[in-house]
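Archive entry. Fields below.
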Amino acid sequence: MASFDVMPDMQLYQPAELDDALELADRHGKQGWLLGGGQDTYGWLKDRAKNPQAMIDLNGIEALKGVRETGDGVEIGAATTLRDIIRNPLLNDQFSLLTAAAGRVASPQIRNVGTLGGNLVQDTRCWYYRRGLSCYRAGGNLCYADSPQGMNREHSLFEASRCVAVSPSDTATAMVALDATMVIQSVNGERTVSAAKFFVGPATHITQMTSLETGEILTAIRLPKKWAGKHFYFEKVADRDVWDFALVSIAVAMDLSDGAIQDSRFVCGGVAAVPYRLRGVENAARGKSLGPDSGDTLAALATKGAEPLNYNHFKMPLMENLVRRAMRG
Amino acid sequence: MMDIATFKNDVWGREVLLGVSWDLLWVILIAAFLFVAVHALYMAARKKDRSPSADGPRVSRHSGVDRIFHWVMAGSVFVLLITGIFPIIGIEFNWLTIHWIAGIVLTVVILFHIVRALFWKQLKSMWFSGRDLKEPFDSSIKPGKYSVAQKAMHLGVTVLTLAVIASGLVLFAMIDTPWWDRTNALEESTLGWMFFLHGLSTLLLVGMICLHIYFGVRPEKLFYLRSMIKGWVSKDELEANHDASRWSPDESG
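PREDICTED_STRUCTURE:
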């Protein structure tokens, strides 16, 4: 596949107001491309695997940036950089699960420019798809990664439906664990959707990773107070410690009372097309204390229902061990 | 110019068939709408024939088994069309499992119908004769149990349904089911042909179903719809529309 050092010819828009960006997104529709930090974008464009006609740069819109405390928690602008999230005292104090996840995204250089919104809505890293092949996700009728010869070491264990790609986002797992609400705007107004429903699997939307529709912009993410200051755990396993996507990651939020888990959310990344909640683990965790015994019990439930592909069985013990480690206390 | 098929490059860069062009859906729907509109206007302008009465003695047209078959088939076809086409036109939902279950239902009832038609029914009543071909041009010729239009509709639906089932069964082998795991082992070009056949026969079925529904609810044909629900037509309706020497139904209906 040809790759180019230069950007393709396209119209660049740099709106300073959200309303202008929404109007541009509406006007250009599928031919428009929303630009955050560009860390997902530029690869697509340089490989010419995506060829939008207009780029709408959201980085000049101040309303999309910053962390604000609200009556019911915290609201984060979607164009806030990952670096700003990692360094934000309020988030570090109340939602350290998110700052831990953001701190494990790629490299410091990428975190300096990469935005939270961009990290959440980034496309999958399946190399067949990224290469520009006409697979199911690209509108074709075949999953190359799931063929007998397909290389699928990084692909899904759960809920594959024709396509076996996984969500590459580190912060997405934290968002689902924190029961975040995504704020989406378009020229038709605002809608909100829970993080759990924001990310969509191939059974429903085989060509999308999120429920964002054409013309819509993810403008903010709201973290509810419910999980503020609770017990958190985040860990990411990747082939390299820096600048790599998760083979498996885990984001856990636990509400502990007298050392016992009252409520919890265990979410794994890198194992499904969406951040994958371990509901069996969550149900079994209720009333249990942190410790190796509980960890062993819960770890056994982590991979229930997994359907490994030819080359990704190794993800199953990884998942189990991550649950075990989350329960160490 | 609109294409009938869509193509893509395979993993080696060769052009292979991807499937049918779904733009044809709108062509077929518009063509069906135009046909219906023109036919409805023509029928409205035409001199009205005497409407036979539904009262009086009744004769049986469709047995209970046949009516159940028809409506189960109709239901499964509608579910298949909704689950197959809606996601393509942008109404997305978790469709695949519902689609293949409806496909199995359709396959089973079609097999049942084939066996029943071959061994227990009068196959000849649905087949064309030389006299049928004169029927549209000579108002004095009345059909047996089925008119030439009904036979043509049945033949078309038969061919298209068998095509959609055959291609659907091949595609069914490509996905996970309770009985086997997906293999994805089919050649891309073969897969493309299966999708093309599946899509094209689906699109043509959409057109035929539009016409079937239209003729099913036309005032002068409404007694056929009633007979597919209740099983009977009146003797007056039979004599006005059919040749009793070519179709002698039970008068027990």
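CURATOR_NOTE: The first strand of chain B starts at residue 5 and ends at 9.
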